[in-house]
Design goal:
The chain is mainly α and 174 residues long. Helix content is 67%, strand content 0%.
């Protein structure tokens, strides 16, 4: 359960790390570049996590997961409304990411235009999602960089994982 919740917060982590999803990288010709992610200051990820920070962390995870799921639904809607099938869109993304992965058929100018429009819309959704998630983390009493450090610490430390899982279960009971 905890791994699923941490996975749900992966959108925030990826955005905070400046790594927009694969859909936005690399940019097809004519597609504007995404807005830069918030700058990070480097702190030791080994820094101890206080019980208060761990509780704040556990409190925001479900909210971040909900925002991430909503964004994924919006991504799917954008793709489904385009002239491209979901399968063709995925094929074009894979071909863009890996030069070895060639599309099954050559990309037509119309497909390229549709693809570029979908990517632009998805980037816009990503920026909105980033802002929402960053605000949720701040409203939860944490700085996004510290949140990311705690994610890394929890992923590495089984004892912290257990503590967070217990906190999440207790939050669900309340």
């Amino acid at each position: 359960m905890l791994k699923q919740l941490l996975k749900g917060s992966s959108v925030l982590i990826l955005l905070l790390a400046g790594n927009l999803s694969a859909l936005a990288q690399p940019q097809p010709q004519g597609t504007p570049a995404p807005a830069p992610a918030a700058p990070q200051t480097q702190q030791s990820p080994e820094q101890a996590v206080s019980p208060e920070e761990l509780q704040q962390f556990a409190n925001v995870i479900p909210k971040l997961q909900e925002i991430g799921q909503t964004a994924q639904q919006k991504f799917a809607q954008v793709i489904e409304k385009s002239p491209l099938s979901v399968e063709r869109f995925q094929e074009l993304v894979q071909a863009q990411q890996s030069p070895e992965a060639k599309p099954s058929t050559p990309v037509t100018p119309e497909e390229q235009q549709s693809f570029n429009q979908v990517v632009t819309q998805i980037q816009s959704i990503q920026r909105e999602t980033f802002s929402e998630q960053e605000q949720v983390v701040r409203d939860g009493g944490m700085e996004p960089v510290r949140f990311t450090q705690i994610v890394a610490a929890v992923q590495r430390n089984p004892a912290l994982q257990q503590q967070v899982q217990q906190m999440l279960q207790n939050n669900q009971k309340n």
